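stuck on this fold:
=====
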Amino acid sequence: MQTDVAEAIFDIVKVLPKTKQEKVLDFVSELQAEEETSLEFLFRKIEERGQNIP
C-alpha cells in the first residue's frame, strides 16, 4: 500500500513546475524521516502544513 501511495505522489509531482516539485519532494522526505508510516499520519502532516503547501 505504501508503494501505491508513493507512486501516486510521484505521478502528481511529475506534472508540477520544477520549484513546486522540490517543495513536494522535501515534504515527502520529511514524512519518510518520521517513524510513523500510517496514512493517518500522512494526512495529519498535510493538515498541519495546510496553507504552507503552495
